[in-house]
């Protein structure tokens, strides 16, 4: 069974059906649009830290990540130096990976630099596709797309690190740029960005 109906009568994918933390994240946050710089910088950072780990691990450490990285305020993280890196590497509450910590600081500086042009939010959302996947099963959900490959390439060009195409597709799923909720899930088409049948909710509004 690809969707599991909970005690509340709501259908969810298996990954979000049992662990209360993951269920609450799925019901209230995953796939909802995030359009502010801080929110996107946080999620970009957490997706990079998640690489090679379970998302549940990252969610459980999220409060510690926020405390360690100044609430993911890009200006503050951009000022981090060697002492901050040493502090982060000693912080058991987060994922202590030197490359990912360095990438987060580098990405904060790149985020600040982007304000001189379109800004992080506008850049990331400019890669929203015209259609979104229509998955019946977890196996139908892609791990990359033409847009995530292009976004990865553009972010790297702008000085970002640890932003590979798979990580960027996960980011796009998490912040509503694509809707990969399984067909039949109670969350399918609820973001206001996409309709349940995979069309952009803003299609035709300009007309």
From TrEMBL:
Record's keyword terms, sorted: Metal-binding, Zinc
Pfam families per UniProt: Adenine_glyco
Keyword Mitochondrion attributed: no
GO biological process: base-excision repair
GO molecular function: DNA-3-methyladenine glycosylase activity; metal ion binding
Coiled coil: none
UniProt binding sites for Zn(2+): 181
Origin superkingdom: Bacteria
Name under which the protein is recorded: DNA-3-methyladenine glycosylase I
Organism of provenance: Agrococcus carbonis
Upper taxonomic lineage: Bacteria, Bacillati, Actinomycetota, Actinomycetes, Micrococcales
